[in-house]
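S1.2 Input.
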Amino acid sequence: MTEHDRIEGRPRCHCGIFGVFNHPEAAVITYFGLHALQHRGQEAAGIITSEFLPEKSKIRFNSYKGVGLVADVFKDEKILKQQLKGSAAIGHNRYSTTGASENEFNIQPFVVNYKGGNLALGHNGNLTNFHTLRDTLQSEGTIFQSTSDSEIILHLTARSKREEQIERIKEALELVEGAYSLVILTDTSLIAARDPHGFRPLALGKMGDAYTVASETCAFDLIGAQYIGEVEPGEILVIDQEGVETGALKSYHITKAPRPRHCIFEYIYFSRPDSKIFGENVDKVRRKLGKLLAQQAPVRPDSNDDRVVVISVPDSSNTATLGFVTESNKMGEDVRLEIGLIRSHYVGRTFIMPHQAGREFTVKTKFNTVKGVIKGRKVVIVDDSIVRGTTSRQLVRLIQEAEPKEIHFRVTCPPIKYPCYYGMDFPSRDELIANRCNSDLEKIRLELRVDTLAYLSMENLLEAARTENGAHYCTACFSGDYPVPMDREISKDANDT
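S1.3 Output.
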């Protein structure tokens, strides 16, 4: 079930996945790929490699997983050099959405050995018919090792009666619904797959004679891989030795959705600004978010006032803040970009302090103000989103302690009113500040204790994310328009299945 070990109200990303085929140091490459994708999940990490044993003429899968950051889990280089041998590998960074975070059996990639050979899987997303499928499989005698929805795909594949392994995988994916970007390792191939709606990103790259897939292209930059393109929505891409030699990868398709519904929150918050997802550069979209927000809700200096000071909430709103400042000045509003909040990157996860007072203290350990920049000034805070409102309220309090003249809060997305069923970790509807305040902007403003508050409109959000290929987006967390329904409502009190 959806976890409730959430940080102080920020949206949380779900997972990062990576895979490489035909590289002599596959585990090392995967380690660096996961390192670049660390922002997508910080709870646990794992790598599985495929090693050919010539003396036995067989394939062996090697696995190493652990709780913590990538650098901590694989801090002993012997793990990568000696234990994780092989020329193909997949890796996974975990932030739990479905399945209890404290259960080590939930750490991916998952691996099984069945009649078709070895099979390992890493999953980014969330299955919406998870409960129905799990209940059916359990009633037929299937034993689950984890509480994660991802394990279902392995069981469905293993139970398939189809002869070819790719057809078994295809049948399994035709039965599941919801969001999934997958890396699957078999004895002979690396398989990348994406759900028909294309909720989560998945990119294909090449480095020399090796192919690689990753949640975001920033992983390719670190390892020196060339970006080829996206795994298409509904596509199952097979990378094997024949494909390496011919340069022609096998591609299969499951039933396509009427149109893709990419998660627009990837642009707002999740993805790194140096990544390219859904065919567009994240940096470009975020700058446009800021520009449109400046047009929609400008903050003007007083006639006898110093320039307005604009500050970002580091790090996810940095790029949008640049866009806000650039457009404001272009419009003739005399504003100045300043570093008003300093973020510490060495703070542990705030959910180790379960009480509200602990959370509020930890906000102070994460951020500090540059008082000389703020005191006596009209200050604009640009942030990517407001979820519960806890973080925003505490940040405003911190800034108030620096004695600004006024505080104006600007948000680069519409109010979040609905939970996400496709992999984002948002609180229940009752916990969302927009719902607590009945979508009344004035009530939210008063709760945050700022002079003015403005959210980016839905129209401007979609305008900022408009791409040349005419991409369509999932906006369910703002609109309640769910492309794929849940088979069972998520219970807030559930910790697992």
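S1.4 Remarks. Residues 1-9, 349-359, 490-497 have pLDDT under 50 and may be disordered.
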